[in-house]
Amino acid sequence: MSTVPQVGEQLPGRTIHVDRATLVRYAGASGDFNQIHWDEATATAVGLPNVIAHGMWTMGASVQVVVDWLGDAGRVSDYSVRFSAPVPVPHDAGADVRVEASVKSVDEQAGTATIALTATVDGTAVLSRAVATVTLA
Amino acid sequence: MAVNPQVEGRTYPPTDPYVVSRAKIAEFAAAVGARDTAHTDVAEAGRRGYADVVAPPTYAIGISQSAEAAAILDPDADIDYSRVVHGEQKFIHHRPLVAGDEVVAQTTIARVRAAGGHSMVTLETQITTTGGDLTTTATSLLVIRGEGDA
User: Fold this and answer.
1) Among A61, A67, A88, B113, which one is most buried in terms of CB atoms within 10 A?
2) Are B89 and A56 a contacting pair at CB < 8 A?
3) SS3 of residue A45 by DSSP
4) Which one of A83, A84, A96, A112 makes the best mutation probe of the B interface by having the most chain B beta carbons within 10 Å?
5) Quick one: how far is CA B127 from the chain centroid?
6) Could you read off the pLDDT tens digit of each residue along chain A, which spans 137 residues?
7) Which of residues 32 through 71 in chain B touch A, CB cutoff 8 A?
8) A96 Cβ under 8 Å from any chain B Cβ
């Protein structure tokens, strides 16, 4: 991406599959070993429908749509989300997170753009107010 | 029990130094499905002007949460960790973390408020190199669910 993006421009979206192995891998990489992310008995005992993905996994996986478009992870200068719903991850089927993103604003003077993201599972928003600010090349 | 509003503004001691490593960046990048070669290819990172491989945008969460523990475990704050839900997260990268960075993190309780029977605690964590450069500001909103809400 070398030209200045246009407000409203859609970034290529991505459907990200998550299963229990994804969560175990993320637990190890992040150091978050909370059992609700890998043990179904623990998750259901605290009232969850199933094992749920780490919110931070969803946040980290979703921003890859922005990184792929931008071409440089180091130019994501600011990134924020609200965790609006959990992502249940059943033993057999796992879950698919659909991530879409579009250019919300461009500041040519500052050489930055803001990107609005959505992340949904079966039509339910799992992230809201997800916004990344990027430095343009 | 509601979170004690008196702890608003309290800053906790910094963490011990943490060294960002190439191996941990590669492991984290794989775990979130990151495909940018700057996470794993030192030469490519160098071509883009980085001192070493670049950490993914949410890599700092482990560092910031280790600092947040001091606030969450402060007995004066009265935070019931079994009722904590991670509500929001924000990172401001003053520059990207790269392998070889040695950093410390320090958390401040920026805000405590009550809303709808819950307590909302905003934690702001500054991640700074041991050389004194601010790299990252991580802000977490924790929701501590009220007793009436299973």
Assistant:
1) A61
2) yes
3) helix
4) A83
5) 8
6) 557 899 999 999 999 999 999 999 999 999 999 999 999 999 999 899 999 999 999 999 999 999 999 999 999 999 999 999 999 999 999 999 999 999 999 999 999 999 999 999 999 999 999 999 999 98
7) 32-36, 38-39, 48, 50, 54-58, 61-62, 65-66
8) no
The helix (H) or strand (E) run that includes residue B61 is: helix B61-72
User: What distance lies between CA B80 and its chain's CA centroid?
Assistant: 19
* Residue A123 sits at the chain B interface (C-beta within 8 Å): no
What pTM value is reported for the model?
0.96
| Cβ burial A6-18 (10 Å sphere, 16+ → b, else e) | eeeeebeebebeb
CB B143 within 8 A of CB B87: yes
ipTM of the complex: 0.96
Burial environment of residue B73 by CB neighbours within 10 A (0 to 12, 13 to 18, 19 or more):
exposed
Residue of B28, B86, B91 lying closest to A55 (CB–CB)? B86
CA distance A63 to A79: 8
Amino acid at A32: D
CA dist B116 → A48, B66, B88 (Å): 21, 29, 17
Q: A-B interface: how many C-beta pairs under 8 angstroms?
A: 105
Query: Nearest C-alpha of chain B: how many angstroms from A132?
Result: 9
Matching residue, tokens 């478009």: A69
Torsions phi, psi for B45 (to 5 deg): -60, -40
